[in-house]
TrEMBL record:
Protein name, entry field: pectinesterase
Domain Pectinesterase catalytic residue range list: 34-298
Purpose: Acts in the modification of cell walls via demethylesterification of cell wall pectin.
Keywords, alphabetical: Aspartyl esterase, Glycoprotein, Hydrolase, Lyase, Signal
Reaction(s) the record says it catalyses: [(1->4)-alpha-D-galacturonosyl methyl ester](n) + n H2O = [(1->4)-alpha-D-galacturonosyl](n) + n methanol + n H(+)
Length: 325
């Protein structure tokens, strides 16, 4: 590239470079950084107070940098507080933790350590944990609820036992995340892609139990869980998924399945199987043997798979790359 030799040319050149940087794919333009530190060496000592400082109707990216520590608080991002980027020092040392559990008719979301209802949200290098002692009595204990649109999580951990991650609604992207539980530990009706994630079962008995419970309610509703290049590990005997609603949609693509996956693979939960979309392709590992799978598992064509692993599934407007931190 040739550099300008005059002031006017330099100003034009600078504006051009600024425009390119602003439009750069995968480059989030942060206008403000807020620091959270438990010891007081930041702008706030709690994550919730930092979030509360973001104005309603915010339209520019604000980064909340969370220094290491275990933050025992129930964190909520209201729908009016868009464009928040929440980042910890690393997922092992930066933890949002809450201890709560519920039994019906109490809403499971009320137990969550973290709830995001806003669109346009990023989390990176942070753990969301419900620390309820599930060994004393099994109960619903949610670590995180995601119910905004265009929410992405990078190198995060979600720790719980029953109903760990409520992937409730909206378009979501999870990259290199660790999701741990024992019963329905990814559930909801969202349209989400999980790429390079680990689903780790800590089932305390032989089971069987379920990795996922997807709840798509009708054929025209957007929704589905798509797992790409993921790892299924841990203890017990696990179904890949159970149909929480009659149009439940879950797919595994090029993933590793350890021997804990039961041979049948899927559980209809007494729904009409003709409406359920459960499929897997190009998976490896002892649990990937499909010779004894349920006869109603879908066998998609190449074009059928493209509809789920391509951008048309939940990235039609390219938001995933635009939101990459």
């Amino acid at each position: 590239m040739q550099f300008p030799t005059s002031l006017s040319s330099f100003l034009v050149f600078s504006a051009y470079v600024f425009l390119l940087s602003s439009l750069a794919v995968g480059s989030v333009q942060v206008v403000q950084t807020i620091t959270v530190d438990k010891s007081g060496n930041g702008n706030f000592t709690t994550i919730q107070n930092a979030i509360n400082s973001v104005p309603h109707g915010n339209s520019q990216w604000i980064k909340i940098a969370v220094n290491k520590g275990v933050y025992i608080e129930q964190v909520t991002i209201q729908k009016e507080k868009q464009f928040i980027w929440l980042e910890g020092e690393d997922s092992s040392s930066t933890v949002v933790q809450w201890n709560a559990h519920a039994e019906p008719p109490v809403a499971e979301t009320a137990t969550a350590a973290f709830i995001v209802s806003a669109d346009n949200f990023i989390a990176r290098q942070i753990t969301f944990q419900n620390s309820y002692d599930y060994r004393s009595k099994q109960a619903i204990a949610v670590a995180a609820v995601v119910q905004g649109d265009k929410c992405s999580f990078y190198n995060c951990k979600f720790l719980g036992y029953q109903d760990t991650l409520c992937d409730f609604q909206g378009r979501h992207f999870f990259s290199q995340c660790w999701i741990e539980g024992g019963v329905d530990f990814i559930f909801g009706k969202a349209a989400s892609v999980y790429e390079g994630c680990t689903l780790n079962s800590i089932l305390i008995d032989e089971g069987p139990s379920w990795f996922t419970a997807h709840a798509k309610v009708n054929v025209s509703a957007p929704g589905g869980f798509v797992f790409k290049n993921c790892n299924l590990t841990g203890s017990g005997n696990m179904y890949l998924g159970r149909a929480w609603n009659r149009y439940s949609t879950v797919l595994f693509y090029k993933s590793f399945m350890s021997g804990l996956v039961v041979p049948l693979g899927w559980d209809s939960w007494q729904h009409d199987v003709s409406h359920i979309t459960y499929a897997e392709t190009n998976c490896i590992g002892p649990g990937s043997n499909t010779s004894q799978r349920v006869p109603w598992e879908k066998h998609l064509s190449g074009q059928g798979w493209d509809a789920f692993v391509g951008p048309e599934f939940n990235d039609q407007d390219g938001w995933i790359e635009q939101h990459a931190p």
